[in-house]
Amino acid sequence: MTDHLTIVTHPLVQHKLTLMRDKGASTAVFRQLLREISQMLAYEVTRELEMTTQTIETPMTEMEAPVLKGKKLALISILRAGNGMLDGVLELIPSARVGFVGLYRDEKTLKPVQYYYKAPESLEDRLVVVVDPMLATGNSSVAAIDLLKAAGAKNIRFLCLLAAPEGVARMKEAHPDVPIITASLDKCLNDKGYIIPGLGDAGDRMFGTK
Ligand code: URA
After folding, report:
1. Residue with more model confidence, 9 or 104
2. Cofactors per UniProt (predicted)?
């Protein structure tokens, strides 16, 4: 994967995204749609996985059949909204290893501070897919990827539902080697850091909080 930004324009992804953006979508519908879109984004992010072959026997004959090469993928969810995407991605890649990064924003410095970190071992040998539905300022994704790189990760991709141009630029500056895969590049951020037109607070909408 060489492009820094990939927008998945598949009609089903775009249709489902419109249903999610609508403020009338219920929590259950929002969660289900996020799960479905995440599966389709995961399909895209894994398109170029390395393959090898394995000898198997079909009921008819022996054959050399293609299988995925190397260690299992690592999926890293940025808490808490990342968990809504994780479910969908895991349905497609059930054997993936899973990690979590928890960050909050310091009220004074406005910088992300880590409160939780747990990642699978041998990150350096895995494709590491970071999931967070909203790439807004990019501060938390950059900080999460800093942590993963410090832990050895070398081959990282970032999967999100919506991206703001500001977040994409921040990621490109801090982590130009990390491709971003998203369903939409929206217009801008508002002065509170929300994506416009966006869909509101993804965590609140998927968990039914306010
Ligand atoms: N996080 C969200 O949940 N929504 C936004 O619009 C921006 C960041």
Report:
1. 9
2. Mg(2+)
